[in-house]
Write a structure and sequence with these properties.
- The complex is a heterotrimer of chains A (about 160), B (about 750) and C (about 80).
- Chain A has about 160 residues and is an alpha+beta fold.
- Chain A folds into two domains: about 80 residues, Beta-grasp domain (Ubiquitin-like (UB roll)), CATH 3.10.20.30; about 70 residues, DNA polymerase, domain 1 (Orthogonal Bundle).
- Chain A is built from five helices and five strands.
- In chain A, α2 packs across α5.
- In chain B, the strands form six sheets. In chain B, strands 3-5-1-12-9-10-11 form a seven-stranded mixed β-sheet. Chain B has a five-stranded mixed β-sheet with strand order 7-15-14-13-8.
- The longest helix of chain B is centred in the last third of the chain and has 28 residues.
- Chain C is an alpha+beta fold and about 80 residues long.
- Chain C has a single domain, classed as Ubiquitin-like (UB roll) (Roll), CATH 3.10.20.30.
- Helix content of chain C is about 25%, strand content about 25%.
- In chain C, strands 2-1-5-3-4 form a five-stranded mixed β-sheet.
- Classes of the chains: A alpha+beta (about 160), B alpha+beta (about 750), C alpha+beta (about 80).
- Chains in contact: A-B, B-C.
- Chains B and C meet through β7 and α10 of B and β4 and β5 of C.
Chain lengths: ~160, ~750, ~80
Amino acid sequence: MARTHITTVVNGDETEFLAEDGTSLLNALRDEVGLTGAKEGCGTGDCGACSVMIDDKVTCACLVFAPEVDGSTILTVEGLADSGELHPLQQCFLEGAALQCGICTPGFLISAKALLDKNPDPTETEIRYALAGNLCRCTGYDKIIRAVQEAAREMRGQ
Amino acid sequence: MAVTEENPGYKWVGTRPIRPDGLEKVTGKAQFGADLMLPGMLFGKVVRSPHAHARIVSIDTTAAEAMLGVKAVITGDDFPDLAANGAHPSEIDVANNAIARDKVLYEGHVVAAVAATTRDQAEAAAKAVEVTYELLPHVLTVDEAMADGAPLLHEGMITKGVDPAPEQASNVASKILHERGDLDQGFGEAEAVVEREFTTKPVHQGYIEPHAAVADANSDGRAHIWCSSQGHFQMRASSATVLGVSPGTLKVTAAEIGGGFGGKTVIYLEPLAVRLSQRAGRPVKLVMDRDEVFRATGPTSGTRIRVKMGVSKDGKITAAEVWMAYEAGAYAGSPVGAAGMTAIACYDIPNFVVEGYDVVCNKPRVAAYRAPGAPMAAFAVESVLDELARDIGIDPIDIRLANAAVEGTQASYGPKFPRIGFVETLEAIKDHPNYTADLGPNQGRGVAAGFWFNAGMMSSATVHINENGTATVVTGSPDIGGSRQSMALMAAEELGIPYESIKAVVADTETVGFNDVTGGSRVTLATGAAVVDACRLIVEDLRARAAKTWDVELDQVEWVDGQAQHVEGAQPPLSLNDLAAKSGRTGGPISANASLNSRGVGAGFSTQLCDVEVDPETGVTRVIRYLTAQDAGRAISPDYVEGQMQGGVVQGIGWALNEEYIHDSDGVMENASFLDYRIPVASDLPMIDCAIVEVPNPAHPYGVRGVGEVGIVPPMAAVGNAINDALDVRMTDLPMSPVKILEALNNQRD
Amino acid sequence: MAQVHFSAGLRDLTGGLAQVEVEATTVRRLVVALEEMFPGIGGRLSEASSVAIDGEIFTDADYEPVSDDSEVHFLDIFQGG
C-alpha cells in the first residue's frame, strides 16, 4: 500500500514522516518519528496511555489515523520539558511518588496539562473527572491527584 | 503515621527522595518492552484458537508463508515434544500452554505465529493460517468441571491428595486439607453459627502494559530477548525449557515493566519470538494487543467457597469449616493451596477443617495475582465473621482482636508465628478518626483483615565503588514498584554516603547473578538483604584498606557515616572518596558480591476500613472513604510502601464492585476490552488513607516485611461488609455490581 | 528428637498420624528417616513442600539444621504474585 507523506509540528519541531492511511497516529509516532513516550495500553481509546495533544486538544493517538494530523501541531510527553527543565507536573509527579511502573505516566501528564491549561484551579473532583479517561493500575490514583493539585498550586504561583 | 516501634535514627531508610528511574519515566525516555526498535526488525503476530476446547486436526501455513513480507511461520511442530523427552509434568504444561500441540484447551490458546516486515502484513498472514479443528465439549466453571460425566481436559488426570487415589480421571487436579481439633465439639460450643456460600469470578491483573518481547537470534543458536517481565531469569529458564535449549544460550534483558502483579512471572511470547527470529534470521518484536491479554493470559481463579463459623458469646471463634473449589484454567495449578493456608490464618481457632480443590476448566491458565488465592478466601471468611459479630453484638475490630493471631500462635497452616503485627493494624484502624466519622443515609462502614506469608527466595547483588566514592548497586530484580529506590536507600544507610551518590540498576542475565522473580513481596527483603550483605563486605574491605593505610590493626578502625575513623582519633578520618581514589594502593578496585537464599521472611497483615454510599435506585456503590493499615515491618521507602498499599486496595475495590470475566456458552470471552472489563478510574474513588504500621521483622537487618501483596486481601470483604452495613443485604457473589445489588434489595423487599 | 507435623493432606502416607518425633540433624536426614518410617513419603515431601523450622519458612531446606527441640512443619508450596 502506498504511504502518505505527512507534515506536522511535533513538540515544537517541523516533523515529516510517511505512513499508510490505516496507520494510527500512535504507531506512526512510535515507529516512524521515534517517539515512544505515548504507549499502547489497549488500542481502542479506553485507557488513555497514548494521550497526546493535537492542536491543544487532548486525544487518544490510537484513535486517530496518521494522515489526519497533516498540518497539525502535536505535543507528546517528550515535549513537556523545556530545554531540560521539567514541567511542574513532571516535577510534582516525581516528588509526590505519583508513578510506580510508569507506563500510564506519559498519558496522565498530557491529560493533566490539558486540564490545567483550561482550569488552573480545579477541585479534587474536577481533577478526578478530567483524568477519568486515563487508567492506572498501580497507584490507586491517590498520589497522582495530589501531584496534580501540587503542580496547579505551583503554576498559580502559590 | 502509626509508627509502632521506635525508628533507630536511620539517616536514609525511611525517607522520601526521588526514585532513580523516575526522570526517565516522566519524560518518556524509559524503555518498556514494546519500545525497543532494532535494525531489520520484523513484527510478529500470534494465531489463537477461537474455540474453548478442540482437537487440532491440521494447520496449513502455505498461504501465510507465501504472502508479501512474511519471513517466518511457526506452529507447535517447531518446538520439542517435552513429554516424549521425559520432562517434569509442570514443564510440559508450560510448554503446551506456550503453544498448543494436539489440543487447544481455551479460547485464545496459541496455535501458530508469524513474522513479517510490517504490522499489517503480519496481521494479514496470521489470518491466512488455516487451522482445522474438531470441536470438543467444554467446561467453564468449577461446577461444570466437577460434575459427574464432565468432559475431561486431560485424560490422565487423577486427583492428588486423595486417599485412596481415585480410579477414574477427572478435572480435579488435587485436593488440599488442613484440620485441627474437633469440629462438632467446636460448633457445639458456639453461641452463634453462620454458614454462607460464596462465588467469585476470574479477574485479571489488569496491568496497563500488554506483554511484549523482542528477540534477536543468531545462527549459532544463541538469542537475546528483551521483555517486560517480573523476572528475566525466570523468562530465561522457561523459554529455554520450551525451546529445548540450555538457559545459557539465552540472554534476557529486563525492559521497564508496565505492571505485573504476578501476571508477568510467567512466559507467553518469549519462546515464540525467539523461534520466529531463528527462522527469519532477523529480530522479531511480538506484542499482545489488549484483546489477547484478556483472552489468553492468566487471570486469577473464579471460585466457589463455603464457610461455616461459630463464635461463643464473648466473641471467641470456636469452629471454622471452609470448603473451596478454585478454577485453575487449562492446566493444574490454581492457588487453592495458598488459599487453604491463608483463609483463617489471621485467627487462633482451636477447631477447623479447611478443604480445597484445584479444578481445571477450558479457560486461560490462571496466573498469579497479588497474594494469589488469599483474597477470595478472605472475602468469604471476613464476610461470615462480620455477620457473627453483628449476631452477638460485638464491634468488628473487637471480635478480631479477641481472636487475633499473635507471636506464638500456632498458625492454621502449621508453624508458630514469630513476632507479627496483626493486632497493631487492628488498633491503628480503631484509633483512627475515620473509624468514628459520621455516616449519612445509604452509607455504611465495613472492616476486614488479611494475611500473606510473603516470600524470600534467591537474589544476587553486586556493589561497585566508583573512583570518586560514589556507588553503583547492581541487582537482577525488575523494578515494578520503586525497588531501585529501596536498594539505594539501604546501600546509603550501610555505606554512610548520600542516597544521591548511589545509582541502582537492574542488570541482565549475563551481568548479574541469579535472581528469582520480582513477586511474592520479596524484593525489598531478599534483594535488599543481598545488597546489604554486599555493602557490609565492602565496609569490611574499606576498614582493612584504612588499617593498611594507617598501618594499624583492623580493630582500630571503625566505619562511621561514610568514613573510616580511628577508634582513638589518632588519625584523621578517611572518606569513601579518599579510599576509592587511591584504591589501587590498597588492593585494587572496590567491589563486592552477595548471593543468597534469603532467610527470615516476615509475614504481612492488613486491616482495612471502607465507607460506602449505595444508591438504592441504581444499585451503584461509591467508596467514599477508605483507610488501610498494614504492617510493613520497617518502611524503607514510605512513599512506595504507601503506593503498594493504595494500589492493592484499589485493585480489590475493582474486584469487589465491577471486574469479572464474562464468557458466552461457547467459552468465548465477551468483555475483552478495558471498556467492558471495567477497572476503577480516578473518578470512582476517594483518597486512600494509609497507616503504615511498623512492627519490625526481628529476622531482617532492617526489620523489613514484604508489602506488595497483602493489601489486596481484605478489600472485597471490607466493601461487602460496608454494603451490608448500609443496606442490610449480604452479598455473596462477586462482583457486587449494581444489577446484583438491586436484585438483592428486591429480594429483601419480598 | 525433632517434632515433625504433617498437614492433613499428607496423612494418607503416615497412616493418619499428625505428628511424629524424629532424630535428625538436617532436614535432608529427617526426610530420609521419614521415608524409612513411611515409604513413599519422601517423594511427596520433596516435590510439594516448603519447610517451616521453628516458625521460619524455607523453600530449599535440605541442609538446614534441625535440633532436638525443633518443630518442623511441611507446607504446601505457594506462589507469590
